């Protein structure tokens, strides 16, 4: 009996063995597992910021300052976010060709990768709106009717009720939204470029923005039709009134002349 008691294991032996096995397993996983995804993403982001800084120094710093702090020729970019850069550079508005009342849209000179790098650098200067993902501006799950109501309430006074654009004061204008990338429309609502106010999620929710974009796609798409017949360019009451004045009044004048001519002939006979 004494011999068997001497060979009995210590009560903590099993716990020690378990801890040892866990330590060995954890060490083996750390040694052979692939690099952590978050760490890889951080490395890629740091590289994008570094490359974006180089591009910024060449194409943007002369107006916006070497650190994006702004100059007399350009506003500060601290806190504008990646979405503002993606919109301005992606639509070719920046770099600007020349100063003026409004910077027009034109063909961009950067690749998508370079735009992403510029956006990453500017975003590193201060938190701001991020570039939306495709789900945020796709028509899936959108309410076109609601989008039309929201657009007419918040946007039509400048862009016209079908997004054809319109004139503003002092040589400024609201550009046409026909043919504009849905992502850029979403970014414009988020950031408020040039004369446009910004519509953050507090004033227009993500679903509201999706609905508006779906509405614009419906009225300006290739397959869009005017249920009322000839839409006269969709420019609103000015073109419709001019059409009515020229053709409607012209038709009345022609009828009056014809009636007068017939009456004169009847009297002579």
Automatic annotation (TrEMBL):
Catalysed reactions, semicolon-separated: a quinol + 2 Fe(III)-[cytochrome c](out) = a quinone + 2 Fe(II)-[cytochrome c](out) + 2 H(+)(out)
Highest taxon of the lineage: Bacteria
Gene3D superfamilies registered for this protein in UniProt: Cytochrome c-like domain (1.10.760.10)
Broad EC category: translocase
Cellular compartments annotated: Cell membrane
Keywords: Cell membrane, Electron transport, Heme, Iron, Membrane, Metal-binding, Repeat, Respiratory chain, Signal, Translocase, Transmembrane, Transmembrane helix, Transport
Pfam families: Cytochrom_C, Cytochrome_CBB3
Membrane topology: Multi-pass membrane protein
GO molecular function: heme binding; iron ion binding; quinol-cytochrome-c reductase activity
Binding site for heme c 2: 155, 158-159
Segments traversing the membrane: 242-261
Subunit structure: The cytochrome bc1 complex is composed of a cytochrome b (QcrB), the Rieske iron-sulfur protein (QcrA) and a diheme cytochrome c (QcrC) subunit.
Protein name per Swiss-Prot or TrEMBL: Cytochrome bc1 complex cytochrome c subunit
Species name: Streptomyces lydicamycinicus
